[in-house]
DNA sequence: GCCAACGTTGGC
DNA sequence: GCCAACGTTGGC
């Protein structure tokens, strides 16, 4: 059982959009970074905990709790020439980009990035490190517990 | 819109 | 395999 933080731009898919989707579940399309892809393809298992994070928006921060809801499978947008995420080097036989489904468990209060940064217990979070811009980062069990049991109870 | 930091590309 | 140039991310 592992834990992750996954960034989504609310202009693309917000926590409310994900909640409105069937089964509160969305396919995590659009990842075009190998490290982030590898986390989904190689390291995630169904049931892993996910911090659903809003990025590139007025109030960046954690917006809810979710979970990995599928095994990895190809991101269909890579095959679609009309898609912003089209990849000419990907084929059905040798897909390049894999994703998982993510199911929202709970919309929480928005825990702003600024609050995360001010929390000493979270100083080592990967997503908070200088220069970190990965859209998917691992979260330790201690960080997960602290966020769930302390920050989200405020 | 700026820009620091990082990732990717491609010539050599 | 190196590395300069370019592209992207994402907070501010």
UniProtKB/TrEMBL annotation:
This is Putative RNA-binding protein with PUA-like domain. InterPro entries: 5hmC_binding (IPR052181), EVE_domain (IPR002740), PUA-like_sf (IPR015947), THYN1-like_EVE (IPR047197). CDD domains: EVE. It comes from Herminiimonas fonticola. Residues 2-149 form the EVE domain. It comes from the Bacteria.
């Amino acid at each position: 059982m592992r834990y992750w933080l996954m960034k989504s731009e609310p202009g693309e898919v917000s926590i409310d959009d994900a909640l409105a989707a069937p089964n509160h579940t969305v396919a995590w399309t659009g990842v075009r970074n190998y490290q982030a892809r590898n986390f989904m393809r190689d390291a995630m298992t169904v049931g892993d905990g996910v911090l659903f994070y809003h990025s590139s928006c007025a109030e960046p921060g954690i917006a809810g709790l979710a979970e990995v809801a599928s095994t990895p499978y190809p991101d269909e947008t890579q095959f679609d020439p009309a898609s912003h995420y089209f990849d000419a080097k990907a084929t059905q036989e040798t897909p390049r980009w894999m994703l998982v489904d993510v199911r929202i468990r709970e919309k929480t209060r928005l825990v702003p990035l600024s609050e995360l940064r001010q929390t000493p217990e979270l100083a080592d979070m990967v997503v908070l490190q200088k220069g970190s811009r990965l859209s998917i980062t691992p979260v330790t069990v201690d960080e997960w517990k602290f966020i769930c049991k302390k920050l989200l109870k405020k």
